[in-house]
Amino acid sequence: MNQAILLSSSADNIDFMIHGIFSFHLFGQEIWITTSHVCILIVMAIILIFAIVANRKLAHASEIPSGFQNVVELIVEKLDGMVSGTMGKWAPKFVNYISTIFIFILMSNISGLFGLRPPTADYGTTLALGLITFFLIHINQFKHQSGKQIWRDMCSPLPPWLPIWFPINLISEIAVPISLSLRLFANVLSGTVMMALVYGLLGKIAVIWPAALHVYFDLFSGAIQTYVFCMLTMTYIAQACDAEE
């Protein structure tokens, strides 16, 4: 594996940046394949392999689950419960999307445990996730709410004939994907930078004990940020779907 794909840190070289691996030309433009692209493909390949194996195992599932079948059913049950508890009657429509981004973000966040640079430490990745959520919110808002109701909400808390608050509410709507993406990006990147500094500055004495830091920055913080991103996504989408009666 190209060393640039991994977090590289030594006493003389502390490296937590995104690097270009190779480039090619398309329609006269130079396009770079970076470490983020490769790490995303690795994470996606792991998820895809897990999904294929799970599908094969569940096709011949036993009535009393055990082993791998038990793990798969537990994951599905917990994700279904999380989405149902937040989105209520809208859960069946969005459970697949929420479960997919939950697993992808979680796997991306903990990929630092295996020496990869987490894809979510690249703002291009988190911004794309935030924009998908943003478009889902407003597509469902226009689908389930009337134009009159949307205008009334945008002018709230004043009456719709006095749209003084409209610019402020518009800014708050535009800020949704930015806040979602920045929160995830900043927390994951800070953990990536901290671990690179620990290994780079402490050198040979950074043995075994940094595992405790990995538990916090990669596992604990990564899981919390995954949950926060998905919870906010579900809340925003559910509010957009619920028309005021």
TrEMBL record:
<dbReference type="GO" id="GO:0005886">
    <property type="term" value="C:plasma membrane"/>
</dbReference>
<keyword id="KW-1133">Transmembrane helix</keyword>
<comment type="function">
    <text>Key component of the proton channel; it plays a direct role in the translocation of protons across the membrane.</text>
</comment>
<dbReference type="InterPro" id="IPR000568">
    <property type="entry name" value="ATP_synth_F0_asu"/>
</dbReference>
<feature type="transmembrane region" description="Helical">
    <location>
        <begin position="160"/>
        <end position="178"/>
    </location>
</feature>
<keyword id="KW-0375">Hydrogen ion transport</keyword>
<keyword id="KW-0812">Transmembrane</keyword>
<protein>
    <recommendedName>
        <fullName>ATP synthase subunit a</fullName>
    </recommendedName>
</protein>
<keyword id="KW-0138">CF(0)</keyword>
<keyword id="KW-0813">Transport</keyword>
<feature type="transmembrane region" description="Helical">
    <location>
        <begin position="120"/>
        <end position="139"/>
    </location>
</feature>
<dbReference type="InterPro" id="IPR045082">
    <property type="entry name" value="ATP_syn_F0_a_bact/chloroplast"/>
</dbReference>
<dbReference type="Pfam" id="PF00119">
    <property type="entry name" value="ATP-synt_A"/>
</dbReference>
<dbReference type="InterPro" id="IPR023011">
    <property type="entry name" value="ATP_synth_F0_asu_AS"/>
</dbReference>
<dbReference type="GO" id="GO:0042777">
    <property type="term" value="P:proton motive force-driven plasma membrane ATP synthesis"/>
</dbReference>
<keyword id="KW-0406">Ion transport</keyword>
<feature type="transmembrane region" description="Helical">
    <location>
        <begin position="94"/>
        <end position="114"/>
    </location>
</feature>
<keyword id="KW-1003">Cell membrane</keyword>
<keyword id="KW-0066">ATP synthesis</keyword>
<dbReference type="GO" id="GO:0046933">
    <property type="term" value="F:proton-transporting ATP synthase activity, rotational mechanism"/>
</dbReference>
<dbReference type="GO" id="GO:0045259">
    <property type="term" value="C:proton-transporting ATP synthase complex"/>
</dbReference>
<keyword id="KW-0472">Membrane</keyword>
<feature type="transmembrane region" description="Helical">
    <location>
        <begin position="31"/>
        <end position="54"/>
    </location>
</feature>
<comment type="similarity">
    <text>Belongs to the ATPase A chain family.</text>
</comment>
<dbReference type="InterPro" id="IPR035908">
    <property type="entry name" value="F0_ATP_A_sf"/>
</dbReference>
